[in-house]
Automatic annotation (TrEMBL):
GO term, biological process aspect, one: regulation of DNA-templated transcription
Domain of life: Eukaryota
This protein's name: YEATS domain-containing protein
Keyword list, A-Z: Nucleus
A Pfam family this chain is assigned to: YEATS
Main location: nucleus
The organism's taxonomic lineage, starting at the top: Eukaryota, Metazoa, Spiralia, Gnathifera, Rotifera
Length: 220
């Protein structure tokens, strides 16, 4: 059930052997073994102290290029497979910059009452092809409770909402993505601005293309 794994390194011309009595199938298992072991880490041949493999402050294994290279040589096939998987995942990642903001126009002004027209917008940067609808299914907008209705659902692009009011407030947003992206809802907020220029914030979102759904590649 258990194998003895012998890892050989060389320090100042001496052979250092680290023995592990658990079956180590990956470098991650070696890390877990070293970090969870209550035994003194010591070379069984030269008795060299190997406690440098521990990091007492962060409880993480310190980087060890020797072990890394040894495992890469020992598990060539596994490393190649994982590298291929990583490259494929990177190719299937779509990065989009989501922009949330509002435009504003002053309608009337007097001492007792001021009327402002504002338009909330949610879009992608450089959205010339208007593909935001391929990613976003709907957006739930929660306004100040004085608005009736105070909750509005935007279910198709362009995702905009225009209202008339007299003061700024915080707008709560819940953005739901299409199921094919397998992505959790994004909950964020936007504080309304009555400045003359358009105000906005930007965030980067990653989407993972499904390898099983070839239609994603043609649409995008």
């Amino acid at each position: 059930m258990y194998d003895t794994i012998v890892i050989r390194t060389y320090t100042r011309g001496r052979q250092t052997v680290l023995l592990s009595l658990c079956k180590l199938e990956s470098e991650a298992k070696l890390k877990r073994f070293i970090l969870t072991s209550n035994h003194t880490l010591q070379c069984p041949i030269c008795r060299e102290d190997l406690t440098y493999l521990h990091s007492t402050s962060s409880k993480h294994l310190k980087a060890n290029s020797i072990l890394h290279n040894l495992f890469r040589q020992e598990y060539v096939k596994e490393y190649d497979i994982r590298q291929s998987e990583t490259e494929n995942e990177r190719k299937n990642i779509i990065k989009k910059r989501l922009i949330i903001g509002n435009r504003h126009q002053l309608l009337s002004y007097d001492y007792d009452y001021t009327r402002h027209e504002w338009t909330l917008f949610i879009k992608f940067e450089n959205d010339h092809q208007k593909d935001v609808g391929q990613f976003i299914k709907q957006i739930i907008v929660n306004l100040h409770p004085t608005f009736v209705p105070s909750q509005i659902i935007l279910d198709k692009p362009p995702f905009r909402l225009t209202r008339i009011g007299w003061a700024v407030f915080n707008i709560s947003l819940s953005i739901e993505f299409h199921a094919k992206w397998n992505k959790s809802d994004l909950v964020t907020n936007w504080f309304l601005s009555f400045s003359d220029a358009d105000t906005q914030k930007m965030m980067e979102i990653e989407f993972q293309k499904s390898t099983d759904n070839t239609t994603n590649n043609t649409v995008l």
